[in-house]
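User: Hi! I'm working on a homework problem where we have to compare a predicted structure to a textbook description. Could you give me the structure for the chain below?
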Amino acid sequence: MPQDATIVIRHNPSLHYADAALPPRGGAGGPRARGKEPLDLVVWLRHEGLGRLRIGAYTPSERTPRTGTHHAVLKMTADEALRGAGRLRSIWRDRLVHYQPAAYDTDGYSTDGYATDTGPVGGFPLTDSADLTGLASVTEPLTTDLAEEGFDLFDRLLDGPGPELTAFRAFLTDQLGGDRPLRVSFDSDIYLPWPMLALDPGPGGDPWRAFLGHRHQVEQTGQSYVTPQRPWKRQGPVPVTSLNTDSTLESVGRAPEVRKLLEERSSLTVCTESGPFLEALGGAVLDDDVMYFWCHGHFVANGSPHPHLAVRLSDNRDIDAELVRRHRRHFREGTGRFTPFILLNACHTGQMADAPELEHLGKAFVGLGADGVLGPQIEIPQVFATEYAYAFLELYLTGEHTAGEIARTLVHRFAEEFHNPLALAYSLHCGIDSSLEMAS
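Assistant: Happy to help. Predicted structure tokens:
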């Protein structure tokens, strides 16, 4: 019986000549066929015990050196790297999210480097709108400062003597500093805010282009075990989505438009309480293609030096890594199905634990089988968060673009149209190739 041949393009030699723009839509023929191509660069970072870190990198599509990879032991310890990451996040929070114009201390001196005479004392004007064009005179020098801080952490991470480390630093800087945008996976035992790290912007250089998240598609991996999933394809005509939300946030910014978008473009289930969410999570099969959280995220003191991350819906129950794992403990051997792409649009939810042996919510979801998790590394302004969610979901629900493509495109869009660097605070835990497999 004659059959139509199905052709999947595995390699496109001209793929990387495109810059920041999203790939073209599939046109009248529908969504483009997608084969997951090899990554352009894999950087691994291993904690070898006693604080020692070993870093390596390879390009999957090219011949590797005799040792199999470029690698070196870092001078920086794991604790120093984690402290540096925490410091960078706090700088973004304090100088950008908590920026106050004309704020003075008790001695009458400016408490920030970019105090202006515009606007009243008090409030955080950079959080009132996603479009900061009117405050570009503030955000542009701030962005330059943030790029310098991102480069400082990147530079200190790779600093040190010895031929191995010197050669590795030259190799990685050359790879990341090229003109071609790459698809980069940081396979790491410890989590650093990679999109917020930067190359040397140089005197008079473009600070936006210095950020790794502006130059490249970036994901963080590093998962010891991921629950196997049965192969499956969604048969329905539209994606299946869920909105897990705190009802007090339903009218903030573009939140109503995000919900309307999900209602119109998908089969949507809304959860405002932890009970229905956990009940669905505990079922063998969770059909969600996209799981969207629009709620508050916070760190919970637990009597140890390491507070854990949790989110809350409309009730007061903390949803954390241990709770979601407990509700799927019967399906750890691949007897169930849980493969959503998860947008954790709550403060700090893109952040992993502050110690290599611990984990937070995003890593737990990936371990259970989630295709990827995207969330902000820092406290994120609510109005911006709704704007980002709408822009991301509008593109993702077409089934024509990957999460990695969209995340980088939104960094460019918010930079060029709104003079706002906050899209760089969103990071992918896995998911660089995540996309909707649209039914025929």
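For your comparison, note the following. Residues 1-20, 25-33, 103-121 have pLDDT under 50 and may be disordered. The chain is about 30% helix and 15% strand. Good luck with the assignment!
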